[in-house]
Each structure stands twice: as structure tokens, then as C-alpha cells.
Design brief:
- The chain starts with a strand and ends in a 9-residue tail after the last strand.
- Strands 1, 4, 7, 8, 11, 14, 16, 18 and 20 form a 9-stranded parallel beta sheet that branches. The chain has a 7-stranded parallel beta sheet with strand order 2-5-9-12-15-17-19, with no helix packed on it.
- It is globular, with a radius of gyration of 16 Å.
- By secondary structure, it is an all-beta fold.
- The chain is built from no helices and 20 strands.
Length: 208
């Protein structure tokens, strides 16, 4: 569960509604007498959701591309590296559910999903912390939906639904986004005004 290296090709989901294509959920006590995954490297050539190879729009996207869930672990999933050649055609491309801490995630192409990345959820936002994300998000309705805390995002996010490139939910705090371009805008529902966005181009209206 720790200090391991895994490499996969392209993993394609079937047609079942709501399925998870790849799930990482530690359940077994390891040599350190703990249930966790740490200091591991995961490389995927690609993960394709069950929405089909060429859906007409992201409404057809289905399932979760990669679900990372440390619910059963003492220390969850931490301090590991994940690389994806691409993740596409999912309802949620990359979903960090619970006890996901201090990991790095990289992909040059998240695209054609309803939501590219979801960081935590309503009940677990405080346990998805201090992760780093880098890469490019293409056509997705929602770029990144954030419930977690103190995460860092270095992402270019393409066109999506209005004000949905970044969505800070009520539990989100201390998150930092850096991007060269956010054409879709953002929404901030956070109850704590500590999330930041640094863009190299103006967010909103600009003179061209």
C-alpha cells in the first residue's frame, strides 16, 4: 500500500449507469499496522467514462473516472502521485471523496465530462486537504468543484457553463488557484473568504 509504483494503459468503462471506472479505496491493514495508501505512484495512459467515446454533449457523460476514497483508512490516501494522460466522458472525471491528503495530481487533458474534478463533498470537505493539481481542463460543464481546504490548483480551464470554471462550495477554504485563463468565470459560495484566484488574464470583462 505504500512505496509502490503502478502503471496502467487506457481503462474504458462499460455502459452501466453511475459506475466507477477506477476506484482506490484502502481496506486492508498493511505492514505498518495501518489502513492507508502512501508514497505511491499511479500512472494511467487514460481513463474513459461510460458516456461513450463521442457523445454529442457532456449531458451524455456517465459515471466516475477515478474515485479516491480513504474512508476506511487511519490515514487515508496521502503523499502519493497520480498522472493521467487524459480523463474524459464521465459525470465526474476525478473525484476525491474522503481522507485524501497531500497528494499530487497531473493531467494534460481533462475533457468532455460534466465535472472535470470534484474535491471533497458536503460531509467530507475538511478531510480533503493540501493536495496539488496541475494540467489542462478542456470542454466540461464544470471545471473544478471544491469542498476541501488548503489545496493548490495550477490549471488552465477552457469554456464551460457560465461561472462554472471554478466553484467554491460552502466548506471550501484556503484554496489557491493559478491559471492563465478562466473564460467560464467562477462561483463562490464559501462561508470563509480565504480562497484565492490568481489569473494572468482578467477574469470577466476585458478590453481586446
Amino acid at each position: 500500500q505504500g512505496n509502490s509504483h503502478f502503471k496502467f494503459g487506457v481503462i474504458v468503462g462499460g455502459k452501466s449507469q453511475g459506475q466507477v471506472v477506477v476506484r482506490l479505496k484502502p481496506t486492508v491493514i498493511g505492514p505498518d499496522s495501518s489502513i492507508n495508501c502512501h508514497a505511491a505512484t499511479f500512472i494511467f495512459n487514460g481513463i474513459v467514462g461510460s458516456g461513450g467515446i463521442t457523445p454529442a454533449n457532456t449531458a451524455e457523460a456517465n459515471g466516475i473516472g477515478m474515485l479516491i476514497d480513504g474512508t476506511l483508512g487511519d490515514a487515508g490516501v496521502q503523499n502519493s502521485k497520480f498522472y493521467f494522460g487524459e480523463i474524459n466522458y464521465c459525470k465526474v472525471g476525478l473525484y476525491l471523496k474522503n481522507k485524501v491528503l497531500g497528494n499530487t495530481f497531473e493531467s494534460p487533458w481533462f475533457h468532455n465530462s460534466a465535472t472535470a474534478i470534484q474535491v471533497g463533498e458536503v460531509s467530507t470537505g475538511s478531510t480533503v486537504v493540501s493536495n496539488m493539481f496541475t494540467g489542462v481542463i478542456g470542454a466540461c460543464d464544470t471545471g473544478v468543484q471544491v469542498f476541501g481546504k488548503n489545496n493548490i490548483f495550477i490549471l488552465n480551464i477552457g469554456e464551460g457553463s457560465p461561472n462554472r470554471s471554478i466553484v467554491f462550495e460552502s466548506s471550501a477554504s484556503g484554496n489557491l488557484f493559478m491559471s492563465s485563463y478562466l473564460p467560464g468565470g467562477f462561483s463562490n459560495y464559501s462561508s470563509t473568504p480565504t480562497n484565492r484566484i490568481i489569473a494572468s488574464r482578467p477574469i470577466g470583462y476585458e478590453v481586446v
